Arginine/agmatine antiporter
Amino acid sequence: GNIVSALSVIACLGTMCGWLILQSEGPRAAANAGIFPKFFGETNKNDVPMKSLVFTGILMTIVFFMTMSPNASEQFKILILMSVYACLVPYIYAVIALPITMIAKGKSKSKSFYGYLFLTAVALIYCLFAMLGSGTDTLFWGCLLLQITIPLYSYVAKRKKERGEVILLNQ
């Protein structure tokens, strides 16, 4: 009993650290790359992107209230499935970007390219099965999330192109 409790506390602390990194550093990196608005990249005197943390906290609170259920376990189930789905979206983008980047860099003829292509296919299949297994409600909201992010990225890419910046690769 005590060992399991201690391990649970350690797991919660590790999860909290991971959450802070995911909620602050992801948007910060995207802002520094010009994909997200610049305020996500602004930091305080301790180099912490507080505006990003506050913004994502507000969004999470809105989602929390949108998924309110008389049964707390059902609400947490919905939130967990939605967060897993939302976390898989950047992984899918990254998985798809790897072979595209390798081709753009002229590495498509290398032996390692086919190994990475195989790993890309495995990772993509895994992510898609995880998304499909999350249930119809989560799949609906997740597809809505994807439909929002794709035009948003297109808008950002168009702005970068108008400024003469590289869209796909940092060359």
